[in-house]
Amino acid sequence: MSRIASAFKRLETEGRKALIPYFTAGDPDLASVLPIMHAMVAAGADVIELGVPFSDPMAEGPTIQRAMERALANKVSMKQVLGCVREFRKTDERTPIVLMGYANPVEAMGTEHFADLACEVGLDGVLLVDYPPEECGAYSALLKSRGLDPIFLLAPTSTEQRYSDVATAGSGYIYYVSLKGVTGAGHLNVEEVASRIPLIRERVGMPVGVGFGIRDAESARRIAGIADAVVIGSRIVEEIESSPRGEEAARVGAFLREIRAAMDGITEQKMNEGAQA
Question: What distance in Å separates the CA atoms of residue 262 and residue 219, rounded to the nearest whole number?
Fold first, then answer.
């Protein structure tokens, strides 16, 4: 069983939901990557999405665009990001790591070489925003043959056919984009998300993580009540961006501890209600 599958199975047994934070590798510098990753785990992260810097991040809002620009100014490459995963694995064999980014850096490296190296360093999943599931059967098969989970996006506009394509090509979990827009947008409609989750679970048969628009403990708590995972990116990148140099990991850890406590609170509330029934 993969690390991602094991994490979701363990959380289901515990009656808890996955916390999946994102940040861009190399922002503010390469030396900060490992401290931030370890701070996330210490604060209760269950899976980490590690962003690969790219010059044209089409799905990102201004916050993550700036993070990408800072990382690119530091000349952070795909090989260096994978090197960070290798270093992380020396002290953490449990926490799943998902590489999140765009197709160009993978194809520039060579898809097969990338898959081999990703497997070698201990990566667990890959989410490429601009790889549509209906067009990447060979890519998905390649990753799965190396024990890697190809993870795909679904959105409010996704069709029944897209659900089917993702069910065939994907594994690990689904990243459900909660709104029509880019990362960092703030108009989260929890009721609309709640209406979609049951159908996604039925059609796709994987855990569903919800991202985009989750910015605080309250929105995380509400999403944890309906989804299998809460994905937070832009708000974490804002913490990194506003932190004094050297304090990024501590600031991220403090923020995520609040999120984790809120998510676990709703689980405890549900358990108490069940005990009283």
Answer: 9
Q: Which of 239, 179, 243 is nearest to 214 (CA)?
A: 179
**Residue 89: enclosing H or E segment and its boundaries?**
helix 78-89
Q: Please report the pLDDT score of residue 113 as a whole number.
A: 98
Count other Cβ atoms within 10 Å, centred on residue 112.
Answer: 11
Phi, psi of 259 (to 5 degrees): -65, -45
- Tell me 184's DSSP state: T
pLDDT at residue 266, as a whole number: 59
Least confident stretch, 8-12, 111-115, 149-153, 188-192: 188-192
CA pair distance 161, 51, nearest whole angstrom: 28
pLDDT in tens, 5-18: 999 999 999 999 99
- DSSP strand E in the chain: where? 18-24, 48-51, 97-101, 125-128, 149-150, 152-154, 174-177, 208-211, 229-232
Structure tokens of 33? 């990557």
Which is nearest to 144 in space by CA: 109, 115, 176, 164?
115
Quote the tokens at residue 241.
């961006």
CA 116, CA 90: separation in Å to the nearest integer? 19
Q: How far is CA 124 from the centre of its chain?
A: 11
What secondary structure letter does DSSP report for 148? P
Query: What are the strands of the beta sheet with 97-101, ordered from one edge?
Result: 149-150, 125-128, 97-101, 48-51, 18-24, 229-232, 208-211, 174-177, 152-154
Contact 125, 148 (CB under 8 A): yes
How sure is the predictor about 58, in pLDDT bands with cuts at 50, 70 and 90?
confident
| Average pLDDT score over the chain | 92
Residue 92's closest CA among 177, 3, 5, 187? 3
**All domains of the chain, ordered by start, with CATH?**
3-276 (3.20.20.70)
